[in-house]
Amino acid sequence: MTGRSEGRLDPALIRRAQDGDVEAFTALVAGRIDPMTRTAMAILGHDADARDAVADALGAVWRGLPRLRDPLAFEAWSTRILVHACRRALRRRGRERVHEVAIDAEGAPEAGPAGPKVAGPADEVSGRIALERAFDRLDADARAILVLHHLDGRPLSEIAAVLGVPVGTAKSRLYTARRALERALEREDR
Amino acid sequence: MTPTDDDIRAMLAARAGRATVDESQGQAILASATRLAAAEPRQRRSWFGVAGPLPRFASAAASLLAAALVLALVAVPLANRPPASAIPSVGPSAAIAPSPPASTPTASELPEARLLTPQELGSLIESRGAELAGFVVAAEGNLMLDPSVLCARGTVCGNTIFAGAGASFLIKPVGDIGPGPWDGSGPKSGTFALRITDDLADGGRTIVEYLGDLLPAADRLAWSVDELLAGEAREEVGYVAVRAWLVRTPFHPCPTIQAAPGNGVVATRPVYGCPTDDTLTDARQQPLRADGSSLGPANGLYMPSGTYDEWAPDPAAFGLGVEPREATYLLAWRAVAPCGPLADCYVGPEHYHWLMQGRLDPIPGLPR
Q1: 0.80 exceeded by the pTM?
Q2: ipTM of the prediction greater than 0.85, yes or no
Q3: B278-296: buried (b, 16+ CB within 10 Å) or exposed (e) per residue?
Q4: How confident is the model at residue B331 (pLDDT cuts 50, 70, 90)?
Q5: Whether B44 and A19 lie within 8 Å, measured CB to CB
């Protein structure tokens, strides 16, 4: 499951929400809360921050809806607002919070007999933990573009639309973010 | 270890999966959003913004409230004012009018700046190009080479046009503009700061200058000062619009500048605040105090001296100071050399600042 909402949003519903119809707005965003929270959680890594970012973003969506010219662009536009809210949340948070990495019970390292090291579930988990720590070293924009690409599975053209940049810029930013993640992971592995 | 796409995907999926939005939390978020929606009712949208009697009524009510607030605050005895640390202006005993408080919420009549479509821009220039010469506008679209001009393979020829805007104008890049159709880098899509000129190209087409890329805020065109102070605008983007109040202090003495021997370096940062402090703020504020001193805002974006005099719309005196002026100003992220004019020294990221480059004024007659 990805963070994207499935299916196309009803343009008529969006237009009604643009006209100030609160019920239409409620119907419009009700189905977006879960995917938006997953995207925010992937970027921020913290549950409460993710929920706050989604709430902030939905407020901005309501305020900005009358200025949205193309209802078909609603999904990309609202995701852009969410990314912006995540950036703000990350900046507010700063570095004061110690990140906690959850380990699934089924994937937790187990004590085993001594012997030649073979890659197993424990290695996978420790690798994932290191990768997540490396991801947490990235800035909000690098995190966002990796989430949009790898988690949401968006093509570059959609990422460009979400970020409001040309496709070429999105491509180079994705490459830069990927390299930054690799460098951060190298530091984690040292 | 180099992570594979699958590694990254699995890590992000696990991370996203830790989001716990149960039904009650989802309803709480939804309730928060819909409470906001119910609390901020709207009339019918226009295709670019809010229209209708309600905002006008709210604006008028806010104006009355603001006027009452100003009257009440001006009536407060000066003895009750907090002491202002102050930059002495010319003569503390100079007779001036009582100043409004340092930060006064005021209702604004300024229309919200918005992006023009290619069709709108083309139509405006075709019908009113000469009248609008000098206007800076924000427009969204695609810059490309004129497809009607055939170029030899591997060469760049023809003019740059704004796709979908018709044939009334050409785009001329000016300044530090980066790659684009003009250098063979291909079409360029996005949001742009453009200046309408009264220059004509061969064939009588108006020349519109491309100043640079413009980064809109998340849910509107113009940023707030607070957002810029928080660093929310990405710095590699050339231009941003900010809707703000511009004001300056009265003239005051400049500090003594000590030149370092030999290389002419005069300061480690731009010497703003001499002979005036010019600031942009979200709320209207008047730095000039009733006792003749002046006090800058706690939360303002400082601009070089002279910014008010150059860019404030209808600049006007207020005692020894000036009247604050609200507008949608165009700012660019620029290096401000910390060195003297003849020095050759390092200019690092810390030397970049927002500098004013223009204004996005409302275009008369254009629907809001």
Answers
A1: no
A2: no
A3: bbbbbbbbbbbbebbbbbb
A4: very high
A5: yes
